[in-house]
Amino acid sequence: MENWLMLMIVLAIIEAFTINLVTIWFAFGALVTAFVALITTNMDIQLAVFVFTSIIALIATRPIITRLKNDEITPTNLDRVIGKIGLVTEEITKLEPGEVKVDGKRWSAVSKNQIQKDRKVEILSIDGVKLHVKEVEEEK
């Protein structure tokens, strides 16, 4: 019984230091097996109970945990400008980054093509602190 309780404690400590649920099911299996060890000393039965209980706990709770987990990525201040239209405040050349004002802030910007000052650009992506932009054709 002591061995199963020690295993449960070790697995619970590991679980406490991990972000995702990794060992909680096995800790539960070790706890149940500790009680089974009070009834029988047969190690084959104990191992079977441990494996069976752990698998059942995993199967029973995994779908619930998956639904409760929030995997939705919330845009941060940086990536919320992607897709927005900005204004070039310093000319962008193929060799030198320029500057774009978007969402009230000035950003360093690069483009595959040269873009003159006062032209509108669409923000395609962010690489570090540089925006990747392309010129937007203005409607007449």
Task: Outline the fold blueprint.
Blueprint: H1 2-16, H2 24-39, H3 43-68, E1 85-90, E2 98-102, E3 105-110, E4 120-127, E5 130-135
Structure overview:
Helices cover 41% and strands 22% of the residues. By secondary structure, the chain is of the alpha+beta class. A 5-stranded mixed barrel has the order 1-2-3-5-4. It is rod-shaped, with a radius of gyration of 29 Å. The termini are far apart.
Distinctive features:
alpha+beta, 140 residues, five-stranded mixed beta barrel
Largest sheet: 5 strands, mixed, barrel
Percentage of helical residues?
A: 40-55%
Instruction: Please mark out the parts with pLDDT under 50 across 5 or more consecutive residues, or reply none.
Output: none
Total helical elements: 3
Strand content: 15-25%
Task: Based on Cα principal axes, name the global outline.
Answer: rod-shaped
What's the rounded overall pLDDT mean? 88
The strand count comes to: 5
Radius of gyration over all CA atoms, rounded: 29 Å
Q: How is this structure best summarized?
A:
The chain is an alpha+beta fold and 140 residues long.
